[in-house]
Each structure stands twice: as structure tokens, then as C-alpha cells.
Amino acid sequence: MSETDVHGEAVDWESEDEDSDDSEEQEEGYTSPSQPPSSWNFDKDRHLVYLQMMYELLPHHYQSQEINRLTLAHFIISGLHFLGATDRVDKDVVAKWVLSFQAFPSNRASLKEGEFYGFYGSRSSQFPIDENGDLTHNNSHLASTYCALAILKVIGHDLSTIDSESLLLSMKNLQQDDGSFMPTHTGGETDLRFVYCAAAISDMLGDWSGMDKEKAKNYILNCQSYDGGFGLIPGSESHGGGTYCAIASLRLMGFIGADLLSNDSSSSILDPSLLLNWSLQRQASDGGFQGRTNKRSDTCYAFWIGAVLKLIGGDAFIDKIALRQFLLSCQSKYGGFSKYPGALPDLYHSYYGYTAFSFLEEPGLSPLCPELGLPLLTALGI
Amino acid sequence: MHGRPRKAYKPEEEAASAAKAAKLRALQSQFMSNHHNKIYTKEAVDLSTKLLEINPEAYTAWNYRKLAVEDKLSRIESDPDLIKTILDEELRVVESALSQNFKSYGAWHHRKWVLSKGHSSVGNELQLLNKFQKLDTRNFHAWNYRRFVVELTKRSEQDELKYTDDMIGSDFSNYSAWHNRSVLLSSLLARKADGFLPNKKIPDEYKLVQNAIFTDEDDQSGWFYHLWLLDQTVNVETPLLTSSWPSHGSRISLYAGCSNGSFSKLTTFGSESGYFPLVLNFDQAVGGVSSSTVTIDTELKGNEDLVWEPVSKKNSHVSCVWVARLKYISSEPCFGKEYKVKVKIGNSPGIVSSRGCNFSASYEFVFTAHVHDTVEESSQEGIVSWTDGFDIWDAESKDLNALTTLDRSNAQMDSKWRQEAIAEEIDLFRELPDSKIGKLTLARLLMAKAMISDDAVKGVHYNEILELYKDLMALDSSHYQYYKDVHSVALLRKVTSSTEDLSGHLFRCRNMNNSVCLRLNNLSLSRIASVEKLLFVQMLDLSHNELHSTEGLGGMQLLSCLNLSHNRIRSFSALDSLRHLKQLRVLDVSHNHIGEHSVDTTRYLCSSPLFNSEWTQDEVGRQMPTLVTKYWDAYFVLRDLNLKQLDITGNVIAGDVFSSFVLRVVPKLVWLDGKKLEI
């Protein structure tokens, strides 16, 4: 099983999106001049070739990511949408495939005590129903659920047709007393990533009955550090991914508006100027964004931090020319983006490279919906 | 140093990797079957170990192991040795998974789960962590886990502080260590641990961070920590009352009738409603201001159950500024009398800052209200002109003193060590050769000094601050707007820092009964500040600045005439804070950028007023849904105002259609764009 295709059975996981520090491919300090960036323009055609290739056949490097197959599919399919190539995806097949991962209680009327019925990340975490029609192991996961809904939304599947009652009702089981969320009911670390997943899921389904917004808000506010950024859990160091999850969730829940910086900051629920300060200082001297102070610039934080700045109305302060230059230095000659300049591309950094270029308003790319991390769909909202 | 990859691939490994994949697939299906059938034999559990050694992210396998452990534990009698053996095996698997992938959320979580079972020896954990943290000093999983272990083992925060000493000592770029230091210190200072009094400890910390800053000026770690220290030095957590209108000891004259054009003295107020605002300004946003936390003692009738409202957005229950409206004209004749009004704040608890700190020191102030029996005729429905007829205000400044001097008695802050610490820092940073961050820090320090020192010395500092920000605007153009904003704040602090400075901006308006007007025009202001010193202002000229929004003006509850012409307002939404100004009659927003940019569509995504049925329920919304839809941002502001005069020319939005819309929304309007309306 060295290679597998998206629709097949197999491998893989990425630790959701936030901790980006996990591309497998590069070597220590690998900035070899033998791999120059493909060009100093956004090379849309090569990116299309790259995603098309991934759509058909995933390289074996992704085998450790099997559990997150839906996530990888989301990167590919939503990525194609950013590139304006939705026609390369067979929507019906994809919708059917994605929906096949949804978990249901054996008896619709009675949800099993404390369980969550969302989407599985892949076949390997999906168990067959036993002879009693019962689901022995239900491993549905909040991040996979976010990715499943994201794919469906992006391919234009009508989300109102999804049977979301048990999903939302059971999502309540994942919320903890402190307001945070567990990713699966069988246990797992609770942190801002899953608060964000829950908020995005509620937003996409247009139904907030599955979470206590007030509790979630309080948890988020407890995660703001003295420097203005947000850590993934209260008391932890500010982190680009954590900060994105915090701000995007608050935005989705309607606690902050696009005018956070320009309006009424005195009664704001968080400290917007410190947040602006911290976020802007994540742009390093090479033009790229780092996830934490004194770390290397990394493609994906162009999105995580860029989107935060966009969401609070501070994106005008970004040095966009320098950011573009940095991103282009991470563009692979094979298409796709790498984490650092000169490294090999991977799906995760490619997708967030596309979102970053969309954020920079690259011509020919779909505009960005920063709070969902997806292309802005015209049918959305209005 | 940074961004350690967890695994490196070499081309020759490719083939081996393919073989491994095939093995993995076989393992996986066997594992799935075990899990499904709840098989927890040694062979089955070993299989999950193998799987996790290959792929530490397989959370399903971690969850299976938890079930397996529970199963084993349920089968043995409470034999501590056996329990320990079982749990130690889990710790071993986690350790080996972590050496495969240091950043595996699942593995770290499993370790926490095992430890929380309570039978394992936690003593080894810190040693293990020290080993891991030497390899990757920034790994945030390790740092989070460290905090978890410390809490579990009740290791002292002092010992942990020493650990950050070591980590910072060996590499002061280690921001994670600085972060942990701030968390530990906050806790130690908050609970006043032995040797951790702020006046002793914070000056020490300045010395520590100076070493880092002056060794490598380009490193952000130290700067952030420095900023945190400055915040600890300047800010007091408990909320304070910074000002009020009327102010303590002041004497105000209240007339019946419209105040438009009748406020020749600063202390005169008139309103056709027969109410005057009582305004409280706090140094930070607070909630819980009510008739039970703020009591009023006065003979003015009809003020028994005051309603306190926060000056903030809808649905927000916190604000820096709170207002109640006191009745001074009642059915009973009470004209020509003086009334004492005593206001007591915080007698009973309930006023709480948004950070959760209580307004603890109760405070009271008294003012006198002179209610006049003459009804000031709203002399004319005359147009207010901003263009000429201004004379320098020549009244004695003691009049002004009473309005702006704040009673500092409630500022219970032991300020000596704070001032000394800041003064030392200032001296140090004046020595630092020119650098952007050095200049910015110096400006911040000077601003902090101004905030906590006496009024007398302020002027000099403000000039230095303004110069520093000007330099920065020139040196660092990519952050121009930020410097511009803080420059505006400093400038307004300077203007309001003394009565001399302030009176230089006060004018008499000859065409309007010698009304007093505060003119802050042509100052290239990009934001508003120091509103707490300007609560008394009724006529304000902010024209020819660079304002994008009116944020902050909502606190100026007496404001009746406002000139915002020739600014950079882009939409009516930016005027949202004006909705709180019940006295506002004259508004000039001519020559701005309203309508130039289509309304930001992201607004529709989060809280579109079009989804909100609110507007369809009112009269205008029903009668002219198309116009309301088109101009919803204008509608939401204008319908809450009681304007008599509006100037909108020189904006893209202006035109016949918009004018007809305005007339419907603001029925009492008399003057539009300089022309009297035929009614």
C-alpha cells in the first residue's frame, strides 16, 4: 500500500490543522539552492497539476495520516475550489463518499448516553454495526466532522439536507464544564482547536443548539495570554493556531465583529490592541509569519495569523509584498507549497498557501472566508 | 535552533517505507478487529503498541489502550504493584511514541491520562521532561505537560521559577520560558508569596530582562516580557472611577428648554426633556452599575429608582462609561432652587471589571444643581455655523479646573516604587542608541510615567513622546498608522493634561450666544482619547482630522453640536457610538468618504441586519423597505438621533435619494446641508 487514492481504504492523519509543525519531509535546515522556487509568480497551473495528482493518488508519505483522510480530502477539494477548478471533482461521488462516514445512533430515537455522532476520519476508525444493529465503537471526531461539512459545503451540497439532529444533539456531550470541547466522546485532549470545530460546525449547519456559546466564550477568553495572543489551553504560550481558533470562534459565535479594532474597544471582551500587536509581530524579517515568538516563518501561519488580522480589521498593517515574496519562496516547482523555503511540498501547507494567496487577493483565486478557512461561497449567508 | 523536524527522509529509505506501509495495513486491520471484538489479550495489546510506534497519531489505538487498561485494572485485586506495572507499561509506550513523534497530541494526552490514574510514580516525569526539553526547548506540548506535572506533584512555583532562570540563562531567546515565567510570577505576586511583593520583585525583573534586551536588541522575547512588566507596573487591577459629570464640588445650572445655543457657560445645561445626564467614567470597562450599587441622595424629586445604562454596543453589559438621567423638572414647582446631589458608588458590592475584579473602595462625591425658573427659549431654529466667529475663550480657568481636575483620592495606588522603576527604565532607554523598538519603548515608558505621576510635569514628557512617534512614523512606514494612532492619543492626553493646555482650545462662538466650543480641528488626529476629561463639552469641532470612527465620543453625554467634516469616515457604521448622544442636535459629517466603498460584505455574514427582523417592525422600515435596505447602516445610526441639523455634502452617498431617505428617518430635521427644510 505504498500509494492510495482518496476514495480507497487507507491511511493517514494530520494533527488537525493547528499545530503546523508537522510536515514530514524536510531535513534539518534544508534550504538547498538546488531546489529553487518554481517562479516568482503564483503558479496556478502547477498547483492544479499537484492537487489533481493528489486527488487521484496520495503518496505513501501520508500513510501516518490515514486517520485524517477526510482532512486530506478537504485540503484537496477545497484547494481545487480556491484554484477555480471545481469541475475536476466528481461532486456526486465525493458527496456520497463523505456522507458514508457519518455516524448514527442505532436507534434514532435514543442517543447512546454521552456519545457523539459526527463523522469518522477514515474507514480505519469506522466500525461495522454489530448483529444487534448496535455501534460498538463510535469514533467520530469533531475535526473530521468539520472537514466533512467543509467538503460538502465547498462542492455545493445542500447542508440542510444532512441529517444533523443527532450530530448537534450529541455534540453537547463533548463540551466540558469549562466550556472547552473534547474531540471524541471516548476522550482526548480538550483545547481551542475543538471549540473552533464546534463553532464552525454550528455555523455551517446554521444551528447553535449543539453548544453553549457563553461557556465557550469564557473558555476562549481564559486562553488569552499577557502578550495578546491565545494559547491552546488557559495558561499556555500564545500560538498562531490557538489565536486563530479563538478569534474565528468568537467571530462565528457573534461575540466580535469586523470592527473589533476600530469600534468601542473599551467595552470589548478581549484586549484588541495587544492582540493586534502580537499578531503583527509574528511577521518575521523574511516576510513570512511564524506561529510563536522566535520560531521560523512557516507557510501555514500566513493564513492562521493573516486570517486573525483580517477578522479583527488589522490586515492593512501587514507587509503584503514581503509576505508574498516569502510564500513564493515556499512554492514548489512541482506545484504545492512547503512549510519552509526549499523543502518539499505537502497538502497541509499547500492548502494554507492557497488560502494565504486568496487572502492576498491573488487574481484568479476564489475569495476567502477567513472565519471558516474556506473559499467564500456566493450562496453563503445572503 | 527552531522548527525541528521530527523525522528526516532519505531517498534510499523509500523502498523500505513502501514495505512498512504494507505491514502497517495488515496491522491495522488486525487491530480493528481486536478493538471491535473487545479483545484485550497481551497479544492484542502488543499489536496496538506496534501500531502506535509506527503511527503515534492513531488516536483510536490510544483509546483502545485506555479500554484495555481499564479492563485489566478491573480484573485484578487492588494490588499496588500490579497496577503500577500495568500503568508503567503505558508510560513506556508513550515514551517510545514520543521519540517517534515528539508532537503527537494523542501520546501526550495518553500520558496525562495514565498519570491522573494516580498510581504511577510522577517523580520521573520531570527528569524525562528535562531530557525532552533539552532536545527541543520550545516544544509547547512539553511545556504544557510540565505545567500539568507541576500541578499534580504540587511542586513549588518558586522551584519552577528557578527552572525558567536556567532556561533563560542558557538561551534568552526562549520565549516559552519567558512565558512560563510570567505565568508563575503572576500567580506568586497575586498570592503575595514570601519574597514576592511587587515593589521588590518587579524592579528585579526589569534588571533580568535588561540583560536580554541589551544583549540582542532584535530578539522579541525580552521586549514582550518588558511590555508585560510595564503593564504590571502601571495597571491596577481593581477598577477606579476616573471622572464624572457633574464633577465633585461643581455647581451646575439647569434650564428648561433646548440647550442648542444656550450654553454660554461651561456649567450650564438645558434640555427640553427636563432630564440631565449623570455620567460616571471608569478606568476600565465595568458591569453591575445599578441603583443598588450607586445610590443618589438628593431632594430633586422623581429620582428614586434611577436606570443606569452602559455606553456600549447593544447587548453589552460592560462599559467604561455609565449614564443615568436625573429629572430636574417635575410637576411640582421646584424652580429657582439649589439642590445638593450626593452620589455614593460601591457601597454595596456588584461593580465588577470585565476581568472580574471588584470595585472595592467605595467613593462618594457631591455637586450642586441650580434649577432656574426661567425657560431658556431655544432662541432660534438657527443654523449652527462652524466657519467663523470664534474668539479665544477668556474666562478664568478655575471654572475649568472644577470640571477637569479629578479627585485622585480614590486612586489608592502605592506609586513610589512604580515611579522609581519607570524613571530608571527611562534613563536606561535614553541611553540606548537609536532603534525603532528602543524609541517605541521609551515613548511607552514616558506615557506610563505621565499616567502615574502628578500633573505638573506632564507637558515636557508629552512633547518628547510626540517627537518619538513622529520619528517612528518616518523610520518605520509599514507601521505608520499604528504610530499615528498612538501619536493622536498622546496629543489628546497632552491637550487635556492641564487647564492651560485645554483652555487654548476653547473658543467662544460669537454667532451662537457666545457658546463655548472645544476646537480640536486640524490636529491630524486619527483616533479619539481622553474623553474622560472632556465630559463637560457640549460643542466639539473635530473637523480636518484623519478620524475613521467616532469611537469614544459616546461618553460625551452632553454633546449637542459636533463637527466631523473633512475626516476619513467611510460609513455610518463608524458613527455608531453617536447613538448614545441623546443631546446631539447638530452633526456635520460633510466631506468624508461615506458611500465611497461598498459596505463590507463580511458584516452580512456575521450579523446581517437584513436577517434581523428588528427594522421591519418599525414604521419607517415598513414604509420604505427598499431604502432602509440600501442605507441600513445610516438607518441604524440616524433613527436613534434627534438631529435638527445635518450636513452630509461632499460624500459619495449624498444626493436626492439619500436626502429623501434622511427626511423620513429624521422627521425633526430643520437644516439639511445648509438649507432650511420646508415643513
TrEMBL record, chain A:
Which residues belong to any copy of the Prenyltransferase alpha-alpha toroid domain? 42-372
* Listed SUPFAM superfamilies: Terpenoid cyclases/Protein prenyltransferases (SSF48239)
Q: What is its EC number?
A: 2.5.1.59
What CDD domains does this protein's entry cite? Answer: GGTase-I
Q: Which Gene3D superfamilies match?
A: 1.50.10.20
- In this chain, composition skew of type Polar residues spans 29-40
| An MF annotation (GO) of this entry | CAAX-protein geranylgeranyltransferase activity
Which co-factors does it depend on?
Zn(2+); Mg(2+)
Its cellular-component GO annotations read: CAAX-protein geranylgeranyltransferase complex
InterPro entries according to UniProt: GGTase_I_beta, PGGT1B-like, Prenyltrans, Terpenoid_cyclase/PrenylTrfase
In this chain, composition skew of type Basic and acidic residues spans 1-10
Note down the stretches annotated as region Disordered: 1-40
* Protein name from the UniProt record: Geranylgeranyl transferase type-1 subunit beta
Please tell me the species this chain comes from: Brassica napus (Rape)
TrEMBL record, chain B:
Please indicate if the UniProt record lists Transferase as a keyword: yes
What domain of life does the UniProt record list for this protein's source? Eukaryota
Annotated keywords: Prenyltransferase, Repeat, Transferase
Enzyme class, top EC level, equals: transferase
Q: Name one Pfam family in it.
A: PPTA
Q: Which reaction does it catalyse?
A: geranylgeranyl diphosphate + L-cysteinyl-[protein] = S-geranylgeranyl-L-cysteinyl-[protein] + diphosphate
EC number(s) on record?
A: 2.5.1.60
Q: Does the keyword Transferase apply?
A: yes
Which family is annotated? Belongs to the protein prenyltransferase subunit alpha family.
Q: What does this protein do?
A: Catalyzes the transfer of a geranyl-geranyl moiety from geranyl-geranyl pyrophosphate to cysteines occuring in specific C-terminal amino acid sequences.
State the protein's name.
Answer: Geranylgeranyl transferase type-2 subunit alpha
Q: Supply the source organism for this entry.
A: Brassica napus
